[in-house]
Amino acid sequence: MSNIKMYGTPTCKDCVVAKQVFDELGTTYEFVNIVNNPEATEIAIQLNKGVRKIPVILFGDGSTLVEPSREELKAKMSS
Description:
Blueprint (H helix, E strand, L loop, with lengths): L4 E4 L4 H13 L4 E4 L4 H10 L8 E3 L5 E3 L3 H9 L1
Parallel strand pairs: 1-2
Antiparallel strand pairs: 1-3, 3-4
């Protein structure tokens, strides 16, 4: 799976877990730090239907995961 973009913050626990999963699987992704980035924050909110939660992970197929567990993210990556 390619063209993955993750919106989050460097200190968010769930963002750190998602990065670990990507690293474990050797997956390349773009991390978009929403701290002090109103445009990226707005995109993340829009992708999550108006709810403020992170990480918001946008996949190349247009699907998203929000605050996924380690298991949910691994399952998505293997599909």
